[in-house]
Amino acid sequence: MAPPGCTRGEEPKRVTLEPAAAGSQPASGGVSLPAPVGPTAGARRLRVAIAAMVSPKETLVSYRDLMNYIGKKMGMEVELVQRKSYEEVNALLKRNLLDVAFVCTGAYVEGHDDFGMEILVAPVTQGRTVYYSYVIVPAGSPDRSFEELEGKTFAFTDPMSNTGKLAPTYKLAQMNRTPDRFFKNTIYTYSHDRSIESVAKRLVDGAAVDSLVWDFMSRKNPESTSGTRIVDKSAPYGIPPIVVSRALSPELKNRLRDLFLGAHEDEDGKEILSGIMIDKFVVVNDNIYDSVRAMRRWIDRHARE
Questions:
Q1: Contacts of 106 (CB under 8 A, 6+ apart)
Q2: Class (C level, CATH) for 133-234
Q3: Residues 89-107: pLDDT tens digits?
Q4: What is the pLDDT of residues 149-167, one digit of tens each?
Q5: What are the structural domain ranges in the chain?
Q6: Fold match between 14-126+239-286 and 133-234?
Q7: How far is Cα 203 from Cα 167, in angstroms, rounded to an integer?
Q8: Residues 286-298: tens digit of each pLDDT
Q9: In the CATH scheme, what is the code of domain 14-126+239-286?
């Protein structure tokens, strides 16, 4: 993976989970994978987006089995759509160009308040439906707190990211500071694994990342996080949900919801969920995201004062 810089980095691939025609080649920049087993003849595709919480390659590695599981259970072809930013995924959902999406909490709050983005289910990890923002520094850094990063370089993840942008910005606002007046320089990496890599390689002095991503990488590939150290952990926030298009039929929504809710009771589903550190999926209420809305309102109010 190329190290991130001040630009958005590598162009995400458009990945289609369907069979290529005999003798054909994947479209430029894309990767073709075997189709889910036994799609219903004539069934339409299920367009699924996974927001760029991790880079395109890591997303494919992590979610390939789950996408194939969904396709098999639904009897439909699954098209995995990837975009550079959370904003782009939200725009597709707003135009009903997606059926299902795994979105970040910050993007969900903006989408819900903007156009009524609808939660289908949310994952449970380590028995809870919450996650955190970690502020990390290089393992050998002398910095022991977020406050000690003043005057240094810092990586945000995405402008819509809760853990990778909103949470640290809120922390600064409580200190009567803004990112441009606190840090020497800031960049956007557009994925949490790139932010982790940027810190580990000392391309930046610190970064704010999703605890789910850091914990997953720490368990699956300890070398990727061993060059970093957590110096700050936020309050808990409502976990990133799975959402559906408003245009999706009630019948398909119910089938998808039942699929996710029962995945942990299915032998194949349980194994797949374990591989991505999810206990199960549950139905959650929108109010678990109210603390994120409160942070946004506080920052907006502070900026006007």
A1: 86, 158, 160, 161, 162, 163, 165, 166, 292
A2: alpha beta
A3: 999 999 999 999 999 999 9
A4: 999 999 999 999 999 999 9
A5: 14-126+239-286, 133-234
A6: yes
A7: 22
A8: 999 999 999 999 9
A9: 3.40.190.10
